[in-house]
Amino acid sequence: MDEYQIKYNNDMVDRHATMVYRLAYSATQNVADAEDIMQEVFLRFVKKNPDFADAEHEKAWFIRVTVNTAKSLHLSPWRKRTTLAPNEELPHMSGDEGSVCHAQLAEALGKLSKYQGMCIHLFYFEGYSIKEISTITKISESTVKSHLRRAKESLRKLLGECEF
Fold first, then answer.
1. pTM of the model
2. 4 versus 110: which is more confidently predicted?
3. How far apart are the first and last CA of the chain?
4. Which of 1, 67, 137, 159 has its CA 20 to 30 A from that of 127?
């Protein structure tokens, strides 16, 4: 691998690492699994070395591969026979680090189901529409709407008076 390719790969990791990690964490609610998924996504990127039409295509590729990798993890025979211990560690949230509400939000997001967490992340953090989320996750638009509605209801109950 030449020097240019190494710099290009490092730039991709810098641009997409946080998004991939947060999406993986939303899908798994487990730091170790999120890190494994993140590693697998970037390994696939290096192996396949895809050409992207534009920045949006690049971002969509990383999201699609992250979602697929998370689904594969949940479907693995090992996962079906193993019970994981609860994970107390939460992903880094940007914003006011001292804010109690941001800490409560991170904790509340970790309590959502994997699909609710993914839909919330893609809708609010990545700015995708319901139709785009449906395409990315390969679930119907009405199911995406249901996941978003239920996730918002859960977050309202869990967060109470916090305002963002």
1. 0.65
2. 110
3. 45
4. 159
